[in-house]
Fold these 3 entries.
Entry 1:
Amino acid sequence: MQSPKIEQFIQLLSKLPGLGPRQAARLSYHLLDEKKEYREMLAQTIISLTQVKRCAECFQAHEQKTALCLLCASPNRDRSRIMVVEKDMDFSNIERAGVYDGLYYILGGVISPLRPKSQEKLRLRELYNRLSKANGVKEVILATSATPEGDHTARYIEQISEPFVKKNLKITRLGRGLSTGSELEYSDAETFKSAYLNRK
Amino acid sequence: MQSPKIEQFIQLLSKLPGLGPRQAARLSYHLLDEKKEYREMLAQTIISLTQVKRCAECFQAHEQKTALCLLCASPNRDRSRIMVVEKDMDFSNIERAGVYDGLYYILGGVISPLRPKSQEKLRLRELYNRLSKANGVKEVILATSATPEGDHTARYIEQISEPFVKKNLKITRLGRGLSTGSELEYSDAETFKSAYLNRK
Amino acid sequence: MQSPKIEQFIQLLSKLPGLGPRQAARLSYHLLDEKKEYREMLAQTIISLTQVKRCAECFQAHEQKTALCLLCASPNRDRSRIMVVEKDMDFSNIERAGVYDGLYYILGGVISPLRPKSQEKLRLRELYNRLSKANGVKEVILATSATPEGDHTARYIEQISEPFVKKNLKITRLGRGLSTGSELEYSDAETFKSAYLNRK
Amino acid sequence: MQSPKIEQFIQLLSKLPGLGPRQAARLSYHLLDEKKEYREMLAQTIISLTQVKRCAECFQAHEQKTALCLLCASPNRDRSRIMVVEKDMDFSNIERAGVYDGLYYILGGVISPLRPKSQEKLRLRELYNRLSKANGVKEVILATSATPEGDHTARYIEQISEPFVKKNLKITRLGRGLSTGSELEYSDAETFKSAYLNRK
């Protein structure tokens, strides 16, 4: 390697999630041969991310001058429901479905005993605080993944929410069943049981 | 290839579903080096499949002297429900879940316009006949896969069942939702919608 | 499972290499719904494999009345060369290339310390015996795979062949280099080194 | 999407090779939650790539004040050989093998009739010019991949090099054969033929 700058760039990129050293090298050489203007625009966009903040209530990324994001401030959303999702991209995907019209809460990940570092970013205490102050919220929908970690996270939230449940907050979970593409030959017992009981 | 018998065997095996020519060759040479007794047992078991019949009502494989299989003849099954499944292996997998205690109907595949040959084995007319005579059956559960072909097949069965629906037969489908392993980031709109509406 | 014969068949098939229980079940039900004539032909072909023997010299499968296979008995093959291959299918693939016109020796596998059972079928002692009696053989080409196990097997054969090497037998190995599809970005050092030294 | 800056960043990243929209989104949100210092370092490294240049002779990335890179200027490399490689990463991988001690030429890709855009970056004319002036170069080794496009590119370079071949330049290609991991059962005829002819 004759260029320390390329080497440094490959090392920086390799630390990003999902980028191995090979793809990092490929991206580095690609950017080296790109126009200077493209690199400058890319760098500026990265710098400008500092101006993006997270909503004080739901933790979505937004650029409003207010503490709240547009969705949390909107009079058109049903303020009696909060859907707790794991990640920013879950939120984007759910909004695309166009079915849900309540508020959100972006947890920032799942409880994962095997990767304790990833838990540091979880906003569990902030969720508790939000529920403490949540006037008019009647239902919290736990939209975690149907995986062991997602289930574990949902159970934990159910536990810390008990004081609010006693005050009539309803905690629900997304329904289980056949998802698009499921074949009966490969379905596990729990999926079949839910699909059977939810038949219509 | 110096052995016409090996060659013939490879060709016979290559026609079986899921066996390419390479795996067929591997199996052939493996059997060639197996003990004579193993080959004879294998051949005899294949011959003896002729004594296996399919149940006159549900089309499961069985070896009873009667026309009906043990499950269809059992007094312990709920005779007011029939679950229509695509394949023998769907039936085995559902029984393993231990949730359903009614009767079954093994269709023999799905309606697949792109593979008309596979439809020849479908027992749709026989299903119609069974429903015509089905005294005491109150519900038919269509347990087809959550795939375009599975949905298409379910809709077709709903259509041909209309005369029975008018006589109070209930036709249901397995519930949709998150199946085990589903992540919200990758869920399609229909799966999310069902999961949301079926929340609890 | 209501048919013990189907169950027995699935178990027999599951033991074959490369067939898991699911594919075994799929094949079993497929054969159940096949015509009786097909099953009988399949069973008969399996039985008839007993008449296939392995050549006394090269261990290929053949059906001649003689001990030798047609290739070993042919006057058109170069009798001064023997190519040692791992498996029957390696032999078929090499013959298809149409480059080599000498004799063969099918070893029956590789030396694999991790799977000692698979070594029982190796014809190493028989190879030694053949080389002892091999009048006029000038070269033995070790055509084992370029894998750790293939290399290990080749080295072992080189060791047991030392007495014959002293009597002027030449032992060679297939050349290393870029194989079709190789990309330089992913090539290991040994492959590159051979490719570089064998350049032309 | 409530943050136009995030949206812009995802779009910029999606254009990079090997990054789909989903991975681009994942990276964007990851960077949003990273420390400001990390983002600034990343941006600065991207900007600083403008100071990296490509060697006037071999087109490697370097940061010398001279036109030539360290390798091209080194007295320790054999200046009578030039190895033509497709990509920067091929060069890195070959150097790691520690076998070759001559000079290099980084072509910048392969001739790919199906992706004409990718050919714009190919330094074929520059290669012709370098060979015109190459005093003392006795051999050009075409180290393109053993793929149809790599072969096509090597043949094209052989054609444009004919004037130099007449003046005693030798053009070679890397040797073909079994590469690490190759199994005889799956080897194509050309690979086997080369491996057989290069045996030793």
Note: The mean pLDDT of chain A is 95.
Entry 2:
Amino acid sequence: MREISNLEKLANFFSNMPGIGIKTAYKLAFHILKLNEKEVTDFTDAILNTHKNTKKCLICQNYTENKICSICSDEKRDKSVICVVESSKDVISFERTNAFFGRYHVLHGLISPFNGIGPKQLSIKELVLNIKNNSEIKEVILATSPTDEGETTAMFIAKVLKPFNVKISRLAYGISVGSEIQYADSMTILKAIENRNEI
Amino acid sequence: MREISNLEKLANFFSNMPGIGIKTAYKLAFHILKLNEKEVTDFTDAILNTHKNTKKCLICQNYTENKICSICSDEKRDKSVICVVESSKDVISFERTNAFFGRYHVLHGLISPFNGIGPKQLSIKELVLNIKNNSEIKEVILATSPTDEGETTAMFIAKVLKPFNVKISRLAYGISVGSEIQYADSMTILKAIENRNEI
């Protein structure tokens, strides 16, 4: 009986975004109504400009507005270590530590047969090419999440990189810093015991 | 040293929206990158159209794209009961119960001296005018949240409406004190309507 209003359409758009339920979607749609005209066009311009100008770095595949991203083109970064991550979000997390000075390679996904995602849909060939063409690379840290898909992807890449003269490492497993042991799952505790360090 | 990228700008826009933290903001910005061109323009069009075409109903002040909203222009709705709510979000919550067949009045806020919001900034005068001009209205349900601001607003409106020949009621405390109506489940809202009390 009732036609779908623009407001409902907009709320539907928001609710299709990751982690946004229908109530939050309406909250965001109502927020748009409270903006003034300039704020709204600034927002839509930001969406359109980001979509238009953001591409993947020719080396590491991370999102950038240039051919080569700011990390790959930073001569002060250590060229000998490549940290392989699932997504650009992970690059942000690593950068926030201010403790990693190597470079990255962004896979843009994980191997997930259940979701029909195989190695060819990830930027693994670009990683291989980079290592092949770049004798400065001495180590590849496989920094995918310790989930089934993350493990599978790490194991696959480790196998692919075997013929190359690079050290291959994996992020350490353990209990998160600042968390309580009682909330850690058994597998994590098991790994933490296995990887215990002498002090 | 580094200029702010479009992606960061877009993430900042998202993080200024209610309930969106910086991590979710980046998640949403990365989601935009994965859309195709049509999906992006559909989204920005939805934002612009919603902002441009949505106005307030001349009677109840709820958001609509017409002069009179679909509820106020629905002849099947009971004209004798007006449910006064803080925001359009609350109308959605009430409609979801499928148990209220009267009409609404949207205040667009609550009296909040701490935030500099007085009765004049709310659509109270429109409510008074509506009651004055409309002898069919027999009851006004004050359905603001059972918070300090919601109570203050309800008491204020009750006082303003005293001279008029209408029954004034308040939602029953089926809704947990201190919580917001938009987060209440349909059954709770239903009970609160059934148990409304005259004040």
Note: Residues 78 and 151 of chain A are 26 Å apart (CA to CA).
Entry 3:
Amino acid sequence: MDKRLTKDELVFLPLGGAGEIGMNLNCYGFGPPEERRWIIVDCGVMFGRESATPGVDVIMPDARFLVENRQDVIAIVLTHGHEDHLGAVAHVWPDLRCPVYATPFTARLLQDKIVEAGLEDALRVRIVPLGGKLRLAPFELEFITITHSIPEPNALVIRTPLGNIVHTGDWKLDPDPLVGEPTDDRALRKLGEEGVLAMICDSTNALVLGHSGSEAEVERALNGLIKGLSGRVLVTCFASNVARLQSIAHAARDSGREVVLVGRSMHRIVRAAQDTGYLRDFPRVLDEEDATQLHADNVLYLCTGSQGEARAALSRIAEGNNPNIQLSEGDSVIFSSRIIPGNEREIFELQNKLAALGVAVLTERDHFVHVSGHPGREELAEMYRWVRPRIAVPVHGEMRHMMEHARLTSELQVPQTAMVVNGQMLRLAPGRAEIIDEAPSGRVHLDGRLLVNEDEGYARSRRALGKAGFIGITLVLKKSGRLAAEPVLHMEGIPDAVLGPVATAVTRAVEARRGGDLNEQVRLAARRAAQDVWGKKPIVRVEMVEV
Amino acid sequence: MDKRLTKDELVFLPLGGAGEIGMNLNCYGFGPPEERRWIIVDCGVMFGRESATPGVDVIMPDARFLVENRQDVIAIVLTHGHEDHLGAVAHVWPDLRCPVYATPFTARLLQDKIVEAGLEDALRVRIVPLGGKLRLAPFELEFITITHSIPEPNALVIRTPLGNIVHTGDWKLDPDPLVGEPTDDRALRKLGEEGVLAMICDSTNALVLGHSGSEAEVERALNGLIKGLSGRVLVTCFASNVARLQSIAHAARDSGREVVLVGRSMHRIVRAAQDTGYLRDFPRVLDEEDATQLHADNVLYLCTGSQGEARAALSRIAEGNNPNIQLSEGDSVIFSSRIIPGNEREIFELQNKLAALGVAVLTERDHFVHVSGHPGREELAEMYRWVRPRIAVPVHGEMRHMMEHARLTSELQVPQTAMVVNGQMLRLAPGRAEIIDEAPSGRVHLDGRLLVNEDEGYARSRRALGKAGFIGITLVLKKSGRLAAEPVLHMEGIPDAVLGPVATAVTRAVEARRGGDLNEQVRLAARRAAQDVWGKKPIVRVEMVEV
């Protein structure tokens, strides 16, 4: 056996998140090719979109490569508690059954999902303290406190015999994050001195100039803004942004308003934060019903639904479907959030409903009510100056973000920048970083309650149904092959005017059967007839039954 | 008969565009209620979205009210040539058969659509010169030159015995529009002195502070930007922005690049502009094939597809499907356009494909390459100071834009602001403006080549198909009511795992028939079985046939 093939290699394999924002799944492997051992960093979901994947709410990475190698998977390690980093654990873990490590708040959020999935007896999350270390031979891990838009974000240092890796996770440089500690830049500088082989880094805001800004600035701005408002005030934001919840609650207190939490995830996150030692001075919260007694000037609703989600609390309020909360002229709704690209129409439709009630809608477009949790270009540059990796690997971004990130690292004179997308195995050492292999990768849809591979095409065929509808044709045939009854047509999503011509075409095709595949002859005749009248080609299926 | 009921009234009735941006259809009526005569201002379309109206590319207003009153419809008058102002004329006109008036460039664009619809012998557009007047008793119209993002935008003055109306159309205040004259503010001020009862005004950018900026500034910026680029340069913008096309062509000339037009509508608009006296010094354009001979530094592609439209030229180039145009590392694509809300994902996917090729993507986010065609708040304020209407009527906006526009007019102390949405008939005079009636209104889908009313629900049922798929069941029964064959199932968009349980449930339901509606019993059984396995309820239809 060739000795070179058996020597140790250090590889990075993203199975999610490299080429998209969402469903992060990062794998680090060490060992000779036949005996690589793996740690998984993060295991998240992304959300489906009706236009692309109708009927699919949740999408996760295809983890089949890990399942096939499960005896070599050492652990899942989570950097922080956002859905796109932990949402797939409860789905993927049953096929891996490896230890899962997380810091306390992240573990607490994951616990809810574990219980939901009925896995609480099988999976016990192992808790790592902030700044803690883990020995997962051949890897040694160190958690380094950074800042983001959720408590307890961590960068991971992954030490291996072939060099050190910094996996940043999601981060920004917030000098005053309000909840938790600021970024441990001393540890990062020290790492830079120790020597870092590769940094695998967040690209989300590589297109954004400057600095993301601080939660403390938003706190001050919200405080001033809310003090100046009369009438009911409703603030919507991402529930997981605990610092923001605290800022809003303080603004309520400072302007003589009681806080009412609205929406399941608001309650869930506040509970999780308090369980793990955060939000110690969060004011007493009222429930919706008690708050109906308060004067409009004395209430502040802290509410889910900033992305216009139809089933979330704010959409229900805007539609007048919350019996305890009615908004009207003189009231204000603050969107203390950004628009996640793709959600524009839903958010604007929500804002239109609020506007129609006479409610003032305040957003980051016109007021300083939000800062991003991801690093702008100045912050990226600062991080690279601290860590000084030999190899930069942009992840957590679409191609346009990752390419811009790569342009920046090349300006910053990082010796090598390596681009990888999901499924590409990048050898980080020994030698120059290069792609050496491909692993199966893709997307798995949570379709209803079934997990189905995107390749199975159900969402795709539903998308086709959405465009041109469906015609199902049943031919009831006698043994002789003649029709025993008129063909039966099932049409859905197709204008009535199409029915007659299709029925005629089907009958004719049966009558004119030329031997060969009757099913296909009928299918094509129906499709052609639909197109002649309608200009569109529906999906047509023909079933035959003999009586 | 009550005399008050029969006296003349002046009314405004929007049938499209009030409560949405797109498909403008404005009606002005004059006379006693039973004998009102109408002029129609603009008759446009909007574009469908896959998530909301799958399979529908074009949506237009339901004009049934006008068709029912067609003997009283005097004319259709067009303010300018954008699709959302003229795109429905060829669809609606055959039911109205009234004269259509437009200025030369708008008429020229409409002519293409008339020919496409095979109406060239029936409909001859009547051309009004810029600044022209029309006597359409009881109305008198005057066209006032304004500025927008297309040649020949006009505000209309509609004079009636009960007062003057200013219908702004789409506008901005561009001191140097490059193509055409600047806004005729003298005429607007004069009108203000003459006295204006009501102004019906563009709300699109009522949320935008400040001023929209000038095409001349974009010209200078593009010129500098393009001079600094090497490699192939591709610029995409709205083809109808003729001034922009000219700016880009001049930038090409000034940086030693030949201009290549790519995409059908680029050719169409340049031809229309030149036919009507614009773009006189537009450089000679090359065709795609000849341009393959040029050095990369000597070519500039002016290209359709800035909104990420899958079938437009730029998407095809990004996918490598244009044999004459291959982009790669070192080339640049400039999006000299804005993102129309709702198109984000398509545009970003396009930009991701370009980024993956190594192409630099320059947008209005990072470079000054676009100005809006609609008035920011400063421009709105200026217009109200000139025209001084007694009544402000915000149109051309979603509710959030119209409400903000209304807040502004109330700050500006316009005596009355009246809010109307599609289908509400607003009496402008005599007396205080108020809503006095409702007219049927709604949306008509161009579904394939059929016009179908939104209420008919085909797009809605296709959307439901997209979410949960379809099951069609054929029961072949003997005269006795017993099954003559196994039930036939047509399933589409539904995971295979659902088939078995549904088939079993159907057979059982037939066997267990309890009298009553077998069809409904089978339908519910199938739906329930699907939900049990899948967690989703597909559309289920049952057809029975006797043999």
Note: The CA atoms of residues 444 and 514 of chain B lie 43 Å apart.
